[in-house]
Amino acid sequence: MHRSFWDMLIKLDYVKLRLKRPATVKNLYVNPTATLKLGGTELGNIYDGNQLYLNGGKIVTPVIDGSDFTWNSGKLYISSGKHTSGYCIATGSGKALHIWYGAKVNLSHINSLPDNNRIEFGSIDMGMFGGPHAGGKLIVNDFDASNVNMAWSGTFEVHGTLTGFWNSSLKDFATLNLIGADASWNVGERLYLGPNEGRSHVSIADGAVVASAGISTHGTGAQSGVEVIGKGSTWTSTGSINFSGQWENYLRIKDGGSVSATGLDLWSSMGAGHSVEVEGSGSTLNLTGGVSIDANSFQGTGSLMVVTNGGTASSAAARLGQTSPGNWVRVDGENSAWTISGDLTEGIDGVENGVTVANGAVLSCEDVIIGK
Length: 372
What we know:
2 domains, twelve-stranded parallel β-sheet, 44% strand, disordered N terminus
C-alpha cells in the first residue's frame, strides 16, 4: 500500500476494518452499517491527532461496552446513531467530543471530565448552508458540566444532580431537560434564557427540582422559555421572573408542576408579548410579590396569563395593561383560581385589556381598579 494513501480521507462503508498497528490518517469516517474494530483501547493510536467521524457507524474496542473508552488525541465527532455505552473520557490535551445532529450519547458511568477535555454540541465547522452543524443529545446522570459547551445547539438531558452548568453554558439554540425525581440543578444565580439572538428551552419533568435567583430572557434572544411538568416537578426562585424582548417567551406549568418566585413581569416594547400558563390539577404558581402583564401591543401583541383546568396561582397586587392594550388574563375551569392579596388594576382609560373568569373558576382580590 502506497504511503500517500493514508493522507487521503478513508471512507468506510459495508466493511469491517481491523487495525493492529499504528497508522497515520487525516480524517477517518465510519459510515452507516460500517464497524471499526480496534485491537487496543486508545483511539489516538489510529489517527494520530487528527479527526475521527462516527458518521452513523460503530466503533468496537475491547472495552467499548464497558466503563472505559479512551482517545488520546485529536477530535472525536459523533453524528447520527445511538451511542449508549458508558464512556470514560481519559485525560488528554485539548480534546473535544463533538455531538452532532442525530447522535445520542449516554455517559452512564462518569460524572465529570478532566480539565483538558471538553464536550461540544455541534461544531464550529460550517455546514453545507454556511451555518454551524447542529448538535445531538447528551444523556448523563450525576454530572459536572464544567467542560460542556452548548455554543451552537443540541439537547442536554440530565437524570441526576447537575453541577458546573451556568448561564454561559446554556446559550443559542440549546435545550436542557431535567427528568426524574433524582434530577436537580441549583443554578446559583439568575438564569438568563435566549442569549446571542438564540433560543433556549428548559424542561423540568417527572419530579425534577431546579433552584435559581430569578429567571430572565434577553431582549434580543429568540423565543425561549421554561416548562415545569408533572407532580413533584418544581422551580424555586429567590428572585423574580422577568420576560422581555421582541419574541414570545413562555412559562408553562402543567400536570402538577410548581413554580415559586418573588414576582412576575411580562413586558415587551415591540414584537410578540409573553405567556404564562398554569394548567391542570395541582399545578401552582406562587408569587410573594406582584404581577405586571403589560406588553406594548401598539408595536406587536399583548401578553397573556392563563390559569386553567384546576391550576392555581397566588400573588400580591396585579397590574394588567398599564401602558398599552391587548393584554389578557383568563381563569377558566372548575377549581381553577388566582388569588391576589392586593388590588387588581386593569388598563388605562380608553384602552382595551381584559380579564375573563369562566366555567366555575375563581379570581379574588382586594379591589378592582379599571383605568388609571
